[in-house]
Amino acid sequence: MPLNDDCRALMARINKKYGPGSVVVASKMPSVPRFTSGSLSLDVMLGGGWPGNQWNEILGAESSGKTTIVHKTIAANQQRDPGFTTFWVAAEGYDHEWAKILGVDVDRVIVFETNAMEDAYSEMIKAAESRAVDAIVLDSYPALVADDESGKDMDEATMASGARVTGKFFRKVGAATRRSLVEEERPLLCLIVNQFRDSIGVWSPAGTPKTSPGGRAKNYAYYTRLETSRTEWIDEKRPGGSVRVGQVIKVKTLKSKTSAPQQVASLRFYFANSTTTGIRAGEYDLASQLITQGIYHGLIRLEGAWYKYRGFQWHGEKKLTSAMREDLDIQQQLADDVMSIIRTGDA
Fold it and tell me: Does 245 map to a domain?
């Protein structure tokens, strides 16, 4: 049903006062842009990938795969877009050699090394306003030091100074990351890494409660919040013993404004070359993700001992897995079919 004259007059008045495109009919708004994470399972969990023009948090314990997921995200989007550029605020330093192993083209990553909170936030806002980069990454929040804390001696207490500055950052950065409601603009990917801390002075029957530093204001500002954890190691038998070659990263959505919350994905990640699977250091086991998602969404059918998909068939799981690892065309087709189901909401 078309808008009545009063609604059109209201829109005209607001657009005249604040500028064209300040208010639009919702059906005319561009859809939320998405960025791939480099993992099919993670993209499905996110409802199609990372939401663009919004801030997303990845948090977990140490060595749980947080920075790895960010690097794999950047690498995957660089492969899709040869002009994809990242502004990386390295509060803990930037390991460019490890980034290259994870597939990142470090020639397209601008690194700003600082642990000064106000400086980091100020440059992140300016980078978003400039529209000069495609992604902004902060790794990681706990390493930042607010000026109020930095200026005090070690024996002087500072309470919630970082949380106050972070709250101010999110109140100011919204305008910088906002894009046009009527025109197609290059979207921006925004990722912040955080780390759990024990919640001191709080008791829980389930064990030591944990909290994320930065105050509560940030939790309302994030569009998505993902929790990472390591569930198991991946070991392989070698002559003389076994070798640890990877880990299983469990990812759970704590908050999502564009898909269902409390979703879980398991990512088999290899930090060393695997002799049994052929997966190289720095890669996910994408074949296992494809098979899991294909079966779950009814694309791969099991008939007796045969797995069938789009006219292809394989006798047994080993042959199916081998085909998924070796045939890039089948990989891409199955991934496209899964994402088509997610985008249409038929999952």
Answer: no
- Residue-wise pLDDT for 203-262, tens only, equals 566 656 677 878 888 889 999 999 999 999 999 998 888 999 999 999 999 999 988 888
How far, CA to CA in Å, does 72 sit from each of 100, 111, 263?
10, 17, 20
**Rounded CA separation 16/21 (Å):** 10
Structure tokens at 69: 């997921």
pTM of the model: 0.91
- HSE-CB at 236 with a 13 A cutoff on CA atoms is 15
C-alpha–C-alpha distance, residues 277 and 236, integer Å: 10
DSSP-based three-state secondary structure for 37:
coil
Within a domain: 220:
yes
pLDDT for 45-54, tens place per residue? 999 999 999 9
Total tally of structural domains belonging to the chain: 2
CB 99 within 8 A of CB 148: no
23 within a domain of the structure (yes/no)? no
